[in-house]
Amino acid sequence: MSQQLDPGADDGSIEVRRDGAVLRLTLDRPSRRNSLNQPMIDTFVSALTAAATDDSLRAIHIRGSGGNFCAGADWITTNDSTRPRPRTGDIVRRLPHTAHRAVELIHSIQLPVVCTVQGWAVGLGCNLSLAADFTVAACDAVFWEPFLTRGFSPDSGSTWLLPRLVGLTRAKQMLLLGEKIGGSQAAEWGLIHQAVASTDLDEASEQLLTQLASGPTVAIGLAKQAINYSLHAALGQAMTQELYNVELACRTADFKEGLDAFRERRPPQFRGR
């Protein structure tokens, strides 16, 4: 089932499509390199929020339409001088529930998230791809954090994601110097999962999605949660969290199937339960 959601006065939409056990979200505003206006961000957040409690889903795929992934938040439209000036504190009040919430949901949702990136991944668009569990990009894709070149400080998780992915020095290269990073270099740095030729992009993404969507979904979600928790925890705390996650995972049907498959020397057939 495919649902095309009209964001209203501004052009652009998010296509939300269910493809078996995979939820596919397509940023659809090619005339502006899929930059996200406020209604599009709201739709994106709503789709991920619903997916978080949908037990029939086993993976999420995010991509852009046309030749680009996402050119970030649409600040030009947001700061249109013909519109009423927002009251003081608008950014502080709004962003935690919009752009920041989108990044947080991708990072924390207990489903594996794959991003496919071609062309530009800029600002918020870059951070959406970095928050994913696996990002597959074209070798000639461009990852760019242009916040300081536009005169404002970074947001949408960039100061948290980048140091953890590539270290402080490279994070500062991207954030303070505004360096653009190509897809191949991003893969070499460990910024993303994989860089491939543009002609191989769809195949590489689909192979990854097939593998993830056929895995033990509950255990994958618990493993993702434990990895995220460990970023703030001491070793003992992380292992305690692992204990509770193992207790839950061992109660799933997929755990029983994994043991049966091991005993019978066959590939497991996980059902995500």
Describe, in plain words, how this protein is organized in 3D.
β1 and β2 form a beta hairpin. α6 crosses α7. It is built from 12 helices and 10 strands. The strands form 2 sheets. Strands 1-2-3-4-5-7-10 form a 7-stranded mixed beta sheet, with helices on both faces. The chain folds into 2 domains: 202 residues, 2-enoyl-CoA Hydratase, Chain A, domain 1; 48 residues, Lyase 2-enoyl-coa Hydratase, Chain  A, domain 2 (Orthogonal Bundle), CATH 1.10.12. The radius of gyration is 19 Å and the shape is globular. The N terminus is likely disordered. By secondary structure, it is of the alpha/beta class.
User: Could you give the order of the helices and strands?
Assistant: EEEHEHHHEEHEEHHEHEHHHH
Report how far the terminal alpha carbons are from each other.
23 Å
CATH architecture of the largest domain: Alpha-Beta Complex
| Strand composition percent | 15-25%
Summarize the main sheet: 7 strands, mixed
Give me the secondary-structure category: alpha/beta
User: Based on DSSP secondary structure assignment, what is the total number of beta strands?
Assistant: 10
Low-confidence segments, given as residue ranges, are: 1-9
> Helical proportion?
40-55%
Rg over C-alpha atoms, rounded to the nearest angstrom: 19 Å
- Spatial order of the strands in the main sheet? 1-2-3-4-5-7-10
What is the CATH first-level class name of the largest domain? Answer: Alpha Beta
Quick check: average pLDDT?
90
The tally of structural domains comes to 2
- Helix count from the secondary structure assignment: 12
